[in-house]
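Take one record.
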Amino acid sequence: MTWLWNNLDLVLGLTVEHARLAGIPILLGFAASLPLGWIASRSRIAAGVLLTLFGILYTIPSLALFVVLPLILGTRILDDLNVIVALTVYAVAMMLRGTIDAFRSVSPDVLQSATAQGFSSVSRFWTVQFPLAGPVLLANLRVVSVSTVSLVSVAALVGSGGLGYLFTNGFQRYFIDEIVIGIVFTVLLALVFDALLVVAGRLLMPWNRRRLVGTSALRTPKREWVGA
């Protein structure tokens, strides 16, 4: 604990850097998975091709991908862009199947009703299909968020910032306190990201919250509900 107080500025700075390196791929991965998942949900052939492709990419070890990407992108091995691109690929790979399932979970009858009411394909997607798929998308995004926060730590092996520095530095110095602090702050950061997504889901999908409240109210005995 003494080491933490003496090096609090360093730990907080690494935490902010870790959050940046994790947050950007999470957002980019979510944005990329939406059109890919929508296309794949409408075509089994496209689903098979995309899932196979990203499944293969996901099997590539993260450390190897961090080293190979500079050769493809023409960047330096220490550039943050390598980490962001690699983690974005992993985020899409993790979220793609869930995105397909989310769009397929929307009832075809609902989509046909929207079309019958004059919705165009674009407006039907944004006002009907996307909101109804929202809860499943959010659940998948929460999994991707935790996984991405964890993977950022590996980037310390190629010289990128983040809390992974505490792992490598602590290991080299045989200083267990530094490693433990790195683990604790990584877990706390993952919890913060997850909490932010939950709050965002409640704010952006109030209809889902009302549905859950209504369901619990129906299951509550009338005597207790009146007294509440």
